Amino acid sequence: MVADRNPVVVGVDSAAHQLAAVGWGATEAVSRGAELRLVRNAPPELASAALSTNPHSDRHIARAARHLLANAQAYALAVAPSVRVSTVLPEGSAIRHLEAAIGTPSLVVVGQPDRDRLGGSQFASTGLALMGCTTCPAVVVRTKADWRRPSDAPVVIGLDDDFPPGVTEDVLEFGFQSALRTKAPLVAVEAGENHETTARLRACWRQYPDIRVCRHIVGDHTSRALIDWTRSARLLVLGCHREDDLGLLTPGAATRTSVDFARCPTVLVRSRTKNGALQKDMR
């Protein structure tokens, strides 16, 4: 296996739901031969404290953030003792500070709390910031997601004709690469019979002939089928528009519904068009 030179970046916030994201990120980093980088975005209180007249407040908030990162690092090493892990607390809360701290990640991992069935759930501040300043795949790990599945658990990919240009190919590539690393079967859930999508799937399959592939074609209930598959899947891989990836996906939309109710980690493979340029950060 060729080691990935780009880190797996996990956003760490104060909520307990981040531990699942840290644990999954640690195992993924080991499987890729990559560094695990734990990041705590500078909380708004830290920026406010810097402008205050109380010098102790600034130090207290920064100390709490470092303590949070240390706990996350200890958990990552408990889950995956061989992982190479570092912690980063950006110097400020501006996006440029976060971008400088994380470098060029191969993927970012964020935790998501479980909430009510109607309103969905939101991402914490560090997760939102990470998803906003990157275009690489983003992995969402819900609090109750089962991220430790048996070796024969499949990688499930959702294919839709409405993906932005290039996203279908990237979803396929990410899914097949994940299946290859974990020696898992792959299940392709398709919104309908589409000759172009089928041709892309078969072309990718030819590059990975040793992977067992199952096609599952559904009608208008794609999200329901995907959620059902997550009961036994190790990973769900979806595509989405970049403008949808800030945790603002409308509850009820297929992608958002799948993310909110998935029982395994979910990958959002995003359109890499940013300021008119295609970003070459897909790994």
Share in β-strands:
15-25%
| Sheet with the most strands, sense and barrel status | 10 strands, mixed
Shape: globular
- CATH fold description of the largest domain: Rossmann fold
* Low-confidence spans: 244-252, 274-283
Order of helices and strands: EHEHHEHEHEEHEHEHEHEEE
Name the average pLDDT: 80
Count of DSSP E strands?
12
Strand sequence of the main sheet, in spatial order? 3-2-1-4-5-10-9-6-7-8
How does the helix and strand content classify structurally?
A: alpha/beta
Radius of gyration, Cα only, in angstroms? 19 Å
Description:
The strands form 2 sheets. The protein has a 10-stranded mixed β-sheet with strand order 3-2-1-4-5-10-9-6-7-8, sandwiched between helices. It has a two-stranded antiparallel sheet with strand order 11-12. The two termini are 14 Å apart. Helix 9 links the parallel strand 9 and strand 10 (266-270). Helix 2 packs antiparallel against helix 3 and helix 8 (222-229) runs parallel beside helix 9. 38% of the residues lie in helices and 19% in strands. It has 9 helices and 12 strands. It has 283 residues and is α/β, with parallel strands linked by helices. It has 2 domains: 8-142, Rossmann fold (3-Layer(aba) Sandwich); 155-278, Rossmann fold (3-Layer(aba) Sandwich), CATH 3.40.50.
